[in-house]
Amino acid sequence: MPQKKTKLFLHLKKWLEKASMDYNMIESRDRLLVGVSGGADSLALMDLLNTSMLFIPNEFSVLAVNIVLGFDNGEGRRDLERHFQNQDWRYIIDRTNIGPLAHSDFNKKNPCFLCSRLRRKRLFEIAGENDCNKVVLAHHKDDMIETLMINILYGREISTMVPNQSIFGGKMHIVRPLAYIKEELIKKYAREQEIPVIPNGCPSSRTSKRAAVKKMLNELEGDHKQVRENIFKALYHVKPDYLPGAGRIEVSGSGFRVQNKKTVPDPS
């Protein structure tokens, strides 16, 4: 089913291409593996990637990969597969027990971390098996903001997702073409295009650290609407001289690297 060429469609496509050009995400003859969970973000990303591009090369291939986590949602997965077929997308549905494993008794404290790590590992394996050189993830602007806050509040470091990340010695890249786009616009686009979104069946989806940070940011925006935008812009306005533990920071297109990191003082 072709996309409705609405004002929102053109807006999202423009900013997807802008992010791709800024960070060299999508290039001629790339073989893209797109991680598709069945949520609005990843399905909207697949929808946008399967359109004619204006400013980036159109000579790339796209493979949708859905990692089934093992939570019972068979009907939703069947709907997702029908959507793949109706759109004539190349796809792989990979069934795993990652979800129950990440929530097992030995890992109750941090199921999200293990689940994410195992899913990512499986995506890399499938990318290698299918000769894909880039793994495309549907993380958006809000994800980058929330990840920064999660890492500060829970991980004791200043870091976040980057739009283009080199892995395995440059043999593969993780790219995030939605890096400039707000979550609310992606959700609106999914509704506008009548994309069949699958409900999130993860038992930790409402109690995760990300959910807590999202709630905190929503509360802060009640007093100051620019909170999220200010955090995002701060990622591009780094002052190493005013970070006591930084030493020297090298900035590149793929992110920040700290040199000569100082030991954290612990007077307790």
Explain this structure.
The chain has one domain (7-203): 3-Layer(aba) Sandwich (Rossmann fold). 41% of the residues lie in helices and 15% in strands. The chain has helices spanning 7-22, 40-49, 74-86, 98-102, 111-129, 141-153, 183-192, 209-223, 227-234; strands at 31-35, 61-68, 91-95, 134-136, 164-167, 172-175, 248-252, 255-259. Strands 3-2-1-4-6-5 form a six-stranded mixed β-sheet, sandwiched between helices. A two-stranded antiparallel sheet has the order 7-8. The protein starts with 6 loop residues before the first helix and ends in a 9-residue tail after the last strand.
Helices and strands, with pairings:
Layout: H1 7-22, E1 31-35, H2 40-49, E2 61-68, H3 74-86, E3 91-95, H4 98-102, H5 111-129, E4 134-136, H6 141-153, E5 164-167, E6 172-175, H7 183-192, H8 209-223, H9 227-234, E7 248-252, E8 255-259
Parallel strand pairs: 1-2, 1-4, 2-3, 4-6
Antiparallel strand pairs: 5-6, 7-8
Helix pairs in contact: 2-7, 6-8
Give a quick rundown of the structure.
With 268 residues, the protein is α/β, with parallel strands linked by helices.
User: What's the number of domains?
Assistant: 1
Quote the CATH topology.
Answer: Rossmann fold
Structural class: alpha/beta
Strand share of the residues? 5-15%
CATH homologous superfamily classification: HUPs
CATH class: Alpha Beta
Query: In the CATH classification, which architecture applies?
Result: 3-Layer(aba) Sandwich
Which residues sit in consecutive blocks of at least 5 with pLDDT less than 50?
none
Number of helices: 9
- What general form does the structure show? globular
What's the total count of β strands?
8
Q: Helix coverage percent of residues?
A: 40-55%
Average pLDDT over all residues: 89
